[in-house]
Amino acid sequence: MGMTYSVFGLLLQVIFINVLSATEINAQNIKSVKDVQVSIGFESEKLSQLFSKLEEKTPFVFVYDTKDSFLDKRFSLVKQTLTMEDLLLKIAKENKVKFKQINNIISVSSTATLGNNVEISIKEVSITGTVTSPDGKTIPGATVLLKGTNVGTVTDLDGKFSLNVPEEGAILVVSFIGYLNQEVPVANRSILTIVLQEDMQSLDEVVVIGYGVVKKEDLTGSVAQVEMEEVRDIPANSVERVLQGRAAGLQIINPSQDPGAGSTVRIRGGSSLRGSKLTFSSGKWLSSR
After folding, report:
1. CA angle, corner 60, sides to 123 and 92, nearest 5?
2. Which one, 6, 112, 118, 176, has least CB within 10 Å?
3. Among 212, 240, 210, residue whose Cα is nearest residue 226
4. Is the pLDDT assigned to residue 233 strictly greater than 80?
5. Each residue's pLDDT tens digit, 249-281
6. 26-49 burial by CB neighbour count: b if 16+ within 10 A, else e?
7. Could you give the 3-state DSSP secondary structure of residue 253?
């Protein structure tokens, strides 16, 4: 599976370079609830539904235990424009809950007191890390996101990344095509090594072609596959001769048996394609005839 990874990585590096630029900008987008205004009004709304609406209208993500009973409590508000801090104070006062903002994440919990029930803690730490495959090869182009946010980055050509995350409770979600998504708690670490496990089912659902990676269901052309085990012991001095007679629709013509003599490659016969045909193998264009 190491060879499969290397093909994926090379093909996707160009695609992810634009994502890298966009996501690094998002990391600088952290605001206090004091500075964010929201225009909202509702009648007898469950707190769980209210939190979902606020997530749509603001950059914040609410985190809570789904078993907490306060989520079923209802809250009403005449439509108005106010800061998120003022809104949270109103909700806290009527429903005996406490809010704690850590960057863009707002945790919600029950409380018996009516003191300062909106706590703001915008603190970040810088972390670095490396994403690898099980055999230790680095993975370029892997996505690294802060869970519950759109803050993230992608690994560079050496599989390395850096990111600013909340000082407390940060969880990274790491993903790459052909591998299982992995959630990694930062847990006071500044340097991480993340090993992704291969997703065999996912690899069976995609096809690597000369100009990209596509899902099988989206592929419009015909694909033939020759396994290495089938040709490992064949005595041949060229890729063309190894493939001869082993892929449907592929015709190899050898005008000469001399060592080093070239071969003519035809796909689905000479009349099926007009103009030049391009041959792409192991990251290189072999011919255009």
Report:
1. 90
2. 112
3. 240
4. no
5. 777 777 666 666 667 777 665 555 554 555 555
6. bbeebeebeebebebeeeebebbe
7. strand
Residue-wise pLDDT tens digits, 193-231:
999 998 876 555 555 565 555 666 666 666 667 777 776
- 82-107, pLDDT tens digit by residue? 999 899 988 888 888 889 887 788 88
Q: Give dist(CA 142, CA 13) in Å, integer.
A: 9
Burial class (CB in 10 A: 0-12, 13-18, 19+), 7: middle
Strand ranges across the sheet with 143-146:
152-154, 143-146, 171-175, 182-185
Handedness of CA 242, 244, 245, 251 (dihedral sign): positive
Tell me if 228 sits within 8 A of 242, measured CB to CB.
no
Distance of CA 81 to the CA centre of its chain: 36
Note whether 44 and 74 are within 8 A (CB).
yes
Residues linked to residue 40 through DSSP beta bridges, in sequence order = 80
Whose tokens are 């900008």? That residue is 25
Domains and CATH numbers, the chain: 2-29+123-201 (2.60.40.1120), 37-121 (3.55.50.30), 224-288 (no CATH)
Taking the whole predicted model, whether its pTM rises above 0.85 is answered as no
3-state helix, strand, coil in the chain (%, to 5): 25, 35, 40
Q: Tokens for 181, please give them.
A: 């998504």
